[in-house]
Structure formats: C-alpha cells, structure tokens
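Memo to structure team: turn this sequence into structure tokens by end of day. - J.P.
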Amino acid sequence: MSALPRWLPLVGLLLLVACETPPPPPHTVLVRAELARLVADEQPPCGAVRAYTRHARLDYRVECESGRVYRVQVAADGRVTVKPHAR
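Reply from structure team:
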C-alpha cells in the first residue's frame, strides 16, 4: 500500500476554494429587485425602483424612477396588493 503524496491535501483545498460559490447579494438588493418585479405591471410603468421604505413587516412604500409612488403590501395569506400611494 503506497502513501498518498504530501501535496494532495493542498490540491483538494485549492479545488474547494476555486469552486466556492459567490456570496448572495445583500438583502437590500434582493428587496429592491422583488419590489421592482411586483410594480412592473402597473400603469404607467414604474421603471427602476429609485427608493423604498419599509413601514411595517411586508408593507413598503416604493418610489419609482418614473416619479410614481406605490404601496406594496403582502397579506398573511400571501396575497400581494400594489396601490398608488400618496406622496
């Protein structure tokens, strides 16, 4: 029975580091993208989400690039409502 080369564990470690997945995007980026997806079908179009404010859990005020402002709420049953919001 032959012994393994001394460098073999190093190769395994290098392969592990090289195959490591990148970190997930920050929470704010994920929320902004999801809010943009939710208001995308509104008319007139929103464009990109310029800013958002969380008023309560799953209750957001979304400011669009177009200047429009929406309120996005998610109910306990998962139902999403998107309504124009007063500035």
